């Protein structure tokens, strides 16, 4: 296979012979920063149609065109797994979105819980982080990052068929999550991670009563929310996801 160093997400249909117009930011990146020239080979994906080999046919710092040559690899979608988490400080929230993309979350959903400090997020910036993470990790899928919603509202409209891996810090030290996940079985799932302050007693009671929720422990130590998100996604992927 042609050796290609650069992978780019393009919001454009892909297919042999397609020409793809690049926007200003993509052109700046490819031709200004990465010094690519006409004839250079670039891998592209659009989140739906696999990874394609393209060749630069026009290049300037403000625009450019890629010519789509051939399919390099199939579309690979992650399992039907959502990450629901309470946003924390900016850099740590960015980290969570980046790592969740690498770990194969299909959807990333920031939620406001009783002890969440943030009352807004920059959805566009977080979505851009997910896209960059997909470019970097070799994935062909970019998870949707949804806007901030209230956890209580999300739970009210929760789809009955989707299981929720509720990472409950009050269960610290109890048996790990693997067995509980395997007993519940495969299907649509979500992982829920709380903020630095943890969950309120009201939230905990509500989640323990919800038929779709599986309260689990992430081991004998309290993890920071960003660590907990990566750890929970790892355990889930190992037990029921695409690490099997
Ligand atoms: N301040 C809280 C901890 C919050 S940790 C306390 O001291 O109790 C942030 C989030 O990470 C938690 O809400 C939970 O979702 C998850 N988490 C961290 N460690 C965990 C553990 N050992 N078991 C289950 N969930 C954990």
Q: How would you describe what is shown here?
A:
This protein folds into two domains: 7-73, Ribosomal Protein L25, Chain P, CATH 2.40.240.20; 81-240, SPOUT methyltransferase, trefoil knot domain (Alpha/beta knot), CATH 3.40.1280. Helix 5 links the parallel strand 10 (163-167) and strand 11 (189-193). Helix content is 32%, strand content 25%. The two termini are 27 Å apart. By secondary structure, it is α/β, with parallel strands linked by helices. It is built from seven helices and twelve strands. The structure holds S-adenosyl-L-homocysteine (SAH). The site of S-adenosyl-L-homocysteine (SAH) has 18 residues, from helix 7.
Can you tag this structure with a few keywords?
five-stranded mixed β-sheet, single chain, 12 strands, alpha/beta, 7 helices, 2 domains, Ribosomal Protein L25, Chain P, Alpha/beta knot, 244 residues, binds S-adenosyl-L-homocysteine, seven-stranded parallel β-sheet
SSE order and pairing:
Blueprint: E1 7-9, E2 19-22, H1 24-33, E3 41-45, E4 51-60, E5 63-73, E6 81-85, H2 90-103, E7 107-112, H3 123-137, E8 144-145, E9 149-150, H4 151-156, E10 163-167, H5 178-184, E11 189-193, H6 201-209, E12 213-216, H7 225-240
Helix pairs in contact: 2-3, 2-7, 5-7
The structure holds S-adenosyl-L-homocysteine.
S-adenosyl-L-homocysteine is lined by residues 167-169, 171-172, 193-194, 196-199, 217-219, 222-223, 225, 228.
């Amino acid at each position: 296979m042609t050796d290609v160093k650069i992978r780019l997400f393009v919001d454009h249909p892909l297919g042999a012979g397609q020409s793809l117009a690049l926007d200003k930011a993509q052109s700046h990146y490819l031709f200004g920063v990465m010094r690519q020239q006409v004839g250079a080979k670039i891998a592209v994906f659009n989140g739906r149609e696999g990874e394609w080999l393209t060749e630069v046919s026009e290049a300037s710092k403000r625009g450019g065109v890629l010519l789509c040559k051939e399919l390099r690899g199939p579309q690979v979608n992650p399992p039907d797994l959502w990450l629901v988490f309470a946003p924390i400080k900016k850099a740590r929230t960015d980290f969570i979105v980046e790592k969740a993309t690498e770990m194969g979350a299909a959807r990333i959903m920031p939620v406001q819980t009783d002890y969440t400090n943030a009352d807004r997020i920059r959805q566009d910036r977080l979505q851009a982080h997910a896209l960059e993470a997909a470019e970097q990790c070799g994935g062909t899928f970019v998870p949707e990052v949804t806007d901030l919603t209230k956890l209580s509202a999300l739970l009210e409209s929760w789809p009955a068929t989707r299981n929720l891996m509720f990472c409950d810090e009050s269960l610290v030290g109890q048996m790990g999550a693997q067995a509980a996940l395997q007993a519940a079985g495969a299907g649509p799932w979500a992982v829920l991670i709380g903020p630095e302050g943890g969950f309120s007693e009201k939230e905990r009671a509500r989640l323990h009563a919800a038929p779709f929720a599986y309260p689990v422990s992430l081991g004998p130590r309290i993890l920071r929310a960003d660590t907990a998100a990566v750890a929970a996604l790892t355990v889930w992927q190992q037990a029921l996801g695409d690490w099997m």
